[in-house]
Amino acid sequence: MNVITDALCPFCGCLCDDITVVVEDNKIIEAKHACMLGSAKILGHCRLGGNNIETHHTIKEPMTRVDKNSNFKEVSYDEAINEAAEILAKSKRPLLYGWASASCEVHKKGLLLAEELGAIIDNTASVCHGPTGLATHEKGSPSATLGQIKNRADVIVFWGCNPVQAHPRHMGRYSSFARGFFSEKGRKGRKIIVLDVRKTDTAKMADEYVEIQQGSDYLVISALRAILSGHADVVPASVGGVLKDQLVKVVETLKTAKFGAIFFGMGLTQSKSRYKNIDNAVSLTFDLNSFTKFVITPMRGHYNVTGFNQVCTWETGFTTAVDFSRGLPYYNPGETAANDVLNRNEVDAAMVIAADAAAHFPANSVRRLAKMPLVQIDPHWSATTEIANVVIPTAICGIEVEGTAYRMDGVSLRLRKMIEPTHLTDEEVLERITQRVKELRGE
Amino acid sequence: MELLIKNGAVYDPVNGIAGDRADISIKDGKIVEKVSSGASVIDAGGRLVMAGGVDAHSHIAGAKVNLGRLMRPEDSRIGLKSRTKITRVYSGYTVPNVFAMGYRYAQMGYTTVFEAAQAIMKARHTHEELEEIPIIDKGALTLFGSNWPTMDYVREKNLDKLAAYVAWGLLASRGFGVKVVNPGGGEMWGFGKNVTSLDDVVPNFDVTPAQIIVSLMKANEMLRLPHSVHLHCNNLGKPGNYKTTLASMELAKQIKPAKDRQVLHVTHLTFNAWGGTNWGDFESKADEIANYLNNSDNVTTDMGQLIFGSATTMTADGPVQYANAKLLHAKWGNGDVELEDASGVVPIFYAKQISIHAIMWAIGLELALLTKDPYKVLLTTDHPNGGPFVNYPEVIALLMSNKKRQEEIKTLHEAVHKRTKIPGIERELDFNDIAIMTRAGPAKVLGLLDTKGHLGVGADADVAIYDIKPDQIDPSVEYAKIKSAFQSAAYTIKGGEVVVKDGQITATPMGRTFWVDATVPEEQTEIMMKDIRMKFKNYYSINLANYMVQDAYVTHPKVVKAGAIPVKVS
Amino acid sequence: MTLKVTLITGRTISQGVNLENKTSSDYMEATASCELNTKDIELLGKPKYVKIRTEYGDVVVKLKENSSNPSGIAFIPMGPWANAVVDPDTKGCGMPGFKGIPAEIDATENKVLLLKELMARYKQ
């Protein structure tokens, strides 16, 4: 029996690093401290003896098929890698998408392949916090590490996010309930404000719940900014379904905080106005700093969706949605993000890795992916498998392979290897595809 | 691998060579006495030969650099270059991608560059980027000035614990030296406040910036670290701050250096040699600073020269960045790090017709020209705060030519005449001075003179050859040629390998990362660690076991040993 | 009757728990459902299944009660069933319309497609 302490949980953007994993015969039998999401990931779902590999939802062998309506044929890694390389090398406009459930080491290999192919590379931020990146281009990012918030914050705002469901340990470790140097009283010493379009489980735990009419976030932020800057007189009696009195009360709480933190989620990034919501929320944060200290932090979803954006930014200058077809990195979400190029029917082949595009893209995009040569690299059988031609199973990052991941606040940590892998790693597969692509192109 | 550079006009101040024709012999990455007849030969043909450039203060890697890139796609769209068989893509001007960072430094003949600030907690990120910067050797200075353990030990006057913490912090961050930014201010920015003088008391910690600086200097010398404390002064960015800068320099008098170098390096003086009381009567006080330096031997500085055009300010000085963003109505990046420090990123455009910018442009130059000893003023732009490092050749040309300066002054806001001394300064630096400010000086300040910054036997074989024949050029007049030659080295040799020829990258070896392993008596570390463990249990948001930068992130380390007691020889 | 709603999609804990368990009935149970408040459910006549129609497609899912929803707000957990009806337009910034889609909901006797069947539709 092997006990691994201080292990990282490779599920959500909280990247909790206090997991104790018990391993027996290369099987994980226990994951102490992990939440439901983390346990599900680390232990596997079927819990057949706790082995997270030998369950029905993982992919056992590389598989290929020419006709997507036929059954897969199990093949060797060599054959699958060769087939994947041929699809990508032949493509005039390949898309490499995914990267959320993989380490930064995998991202580096992916960016190299994208450069080699002249491909478009995009990660799941595209359908998550992509607009947050755009707002950062517009207004910046006044933020802090999560520990700064835990130690100091006496006012915490959750806007369009639901940590109770999506980031279960966030409130305990970093926000609402966390105790720190200046916040010994934990929840008792804090005011929690939740703004959402429905009374989520997070909203139910708030001191102040502000219910916004769906799609009105931008208006509500603007009203808060107007009140904050002393122009309450121009604010109508009700804004976006919220009474002015409540907005005035919220502003009072915000500006009298000693340290305030705003966490936001897809309620802002995916609603009407998209990145403009975040742009306005960053401006609100900026404005609040004239009164007190305030920071704003996105609730990033996957454990290393942030990492891809970091690596892509330092390697190319751009955060995601990078098009290498000109040789140079070209970035223009709205034009070069995965769903943009799929909507325009530009892409003629795709590789989906460490994400499930078929489950998380709109039908229109999935229809396109379903009709082009498609390579999937993933440990798990997903919706994307159903529409793929080549499926290459890989070892699970953060469980079977170590590597780097970035927490939602940009703190990087090292993922542990908990058990021995039974499959090739993403890194090896990408390296071999890249090598084969070069050979096919006579380089 | 042997290489002979023949017939160069060599400037090697450390070894007393100033333009003499000399041959440089290289074997296995080092400069040697001589090589065999089988060595490959580069005929320098009387052209200028210097050691590879050394930059002791530049922001090249880490969280705030990447936030700068993320905030500025408009910057990344400048300087794009496709990959070649040898090179990856280039992007960016003020915030280049990791590849361009290494290529462009090498193309200028630079071979060693130090990142000026990393928080321990974010050091892994710094090293991830350093690992991907090609060619150059590098390292990173670690922030200590607002760290809670630092302030606790300063308050308790427990230098043993402080030294143990510094040594451990350098190990944890794989850091090279002690960086102090707006000491105490980082903590106060936690609640949106700042310190305003060296003697302000930081609430809850009950220490002053002066006490932090002095204690860290003491610990630094106790540990016999190669580099001294590297200070970004309090009140940076505020008119009248030259007084704080002088007062900070004065603190160095209390300390004796443990090594043959300064005890305090005060950085990017362009931002803290400011007179006046507001933006209206803002003026240069570089002359006062230079005067101080001319009468003192334990403080060094660097220019932080302003370059007109686009820049991206980035610093651990969180409060100054909020003030900047507010003043400029600019986008604002802020990155507080729990228990450690703050940071901020704000884009800026330096304009010739803005009086403040014109005066700041003069400050860096005044400082370099009024300070007699070039070892005391290193050439930097505090990249990318004053401007991007690719402009070093512009700065060299300005320092070498009064004519160029006068031409430039004609294009600037008139304030440069009334509120700076630059129009009347006639001094022109020579190649020897430039070799000191860009090679010997930074190497000495960093404590790396054994292998860097010179061309003596035993030095790393890092060499730059520039397309200038020193005996056939008058830099004062032909400043355009000077600038273009320094922009694009005829050859850059890194560790004995030709990495640049005629300004083009020819090879991209992986450089090394310097970090300092300072020995402290084990029991001292153990006592200190009790406090650290308590801080992780109660205050940090990560576990101690996951804090330290793992070996996987420093694949080509160059460990420099230091310590309070002699290192055991195995 | 036909209920006119604003559709939003998003994460839930059981969607997350089964994120890497897509082929299971647990995943389907977690994501092939639509949440409405009691009043809206009563307006529909408390059916077991509903068909949701938008400009972009239609899908049949199980109906679930969630009294936290205001009237006129329908929530489907993110996933393939929700995405059958969301707005593909990226509004010039790369992000499709996963929230705030005008939709019509009717009771239905039709069955919920399995993931495999749902994906098979796209291959035709």
Features of this protein?
heterotrimer, A: alpha/beta, Rossmann fold, nine-stranded mixed sheet, five-stranded parallel sheet, 22 strands, globular, B: 570 residues, alpha/beta, Urease, subunit C, domain 1, ten-stranded parallel sheet, 18 helices, disordered C terminus
Strand arrangement across the biggest beta sheet of chain C: 2-4-3-6-1-5
Largest sheet of chain C: 6 strands, mixed
Distance between the termini of chain A: 48 Å
CATH architecture of chain C: Beta Barrel
Q: Helical residue percent of chain C?
A: 25-40%
At CATH level 2, the architecture of the largest domain in chain A is 3-Layer(aba) Sandwich
CATH topology-level fold name of chain C: Barwin-like endoglucanases
Q: Class by helix and strand content of chain C?
A: alpha/beta
Q: Reading side by side through the largest sheet of chain A, how are the strands ordered?
A: 5-4-20-19-18-6-7-16-17
Over the alpha carbons, how many angstroms does the gyration radius of chain A reach?
23 Å
Question: Spans of chain A of 5+ residues with little confidence (pLDDT < 50)?
Answer: 45-54
In quaternary terms, these chains amount to heterotrimer
The number of domains of chain C: 1
Q: How many separate domains make up the residues of chain A?
A: 3
Overall CATH class of chain C: Mainly Beta
> Could you tell me the mean pLDDT of chain C?
97
β-strand number of chain C? 6
Low-confidence stretches of chain C: none
Q: How large is the radius of gyration of chain C?
A: 14 Å
Structural class by secondary-structure content of chain A: alpha/beta
